[in-house]
Write a structure and sequence with these properties.
alpha+beta; Muramoyl-pentapeptide Carboxypeptidase, domain 2; two-stranded antiparallel sheet; 5 helices; 31% helix
């Protein structure tokens, strides 16, 4: 087990049921590993603290191109660079509860995008080396369109 931060492992940020089912080997290179360490330490640990130190259940972290294609991810997804994770925190509340709690901390947590996805999970993305976060808070609905938090 490779520990990235006090509460997050490399394995949980690489795991994918789709990758397992389709035999996709989802391994990061060195640059992506660095981004995963930053994501875990600077962003996910902060969100966990905001959520009462309750566990974040990661459903998707890093996705290589094959895995991103298999799950229908965006062509420029932050997941491709180790800069994003999808998660829930049932012990804290619903995805919208999480987004509303995290929104005041976008700058502090280096968040580029915080997305409430169909009421099902939260997507958090940070920017890679040298880029400026947009600090966007969005909701994506079942038709795939974006709006502010609903």
């Amino acid at each position: 087990m490779y520990v990235l931060s006090p509460n997050f492992t490399l394995e949980e940020l690489l795991h994918s049921d789709t990758a397992t089912a389709e035999g996709i080997i989802n391994r990061p290179n060195w640059d992506i590993l660095v981004q995963l360490v930053l994501l875990a330490n600077n962003t996910l640990e902060g969100i966990r603290a905001i959520c009462g130190n309750n566990p974040l259940l990661i459903s998707s972290g890093f996705r290589n191109e094959d895995l991103n294609d298999a799950v229908g991810g965006a062509q420029n997804s932050a997941h491709l660079y180790g800069c994003a994770a999808d998660f829930t925190c049932p012990a804290f509340g619903s995805p919208i509860d999480i987004c509303e709690a995290v929104e005041p901390y976008l700058e502090e947590l280096e968040i580029d995008q915080l997305i409430h996805e169909n009421g099902t999970w939260v997507h958090v993305g940070r920017v890679g080396f040298g880029n400026v976060p947009r600090q966007e808070c969005l909701t994506i609905n079942s038709q795939g369109s974006f709006s502010g938090f609903v």
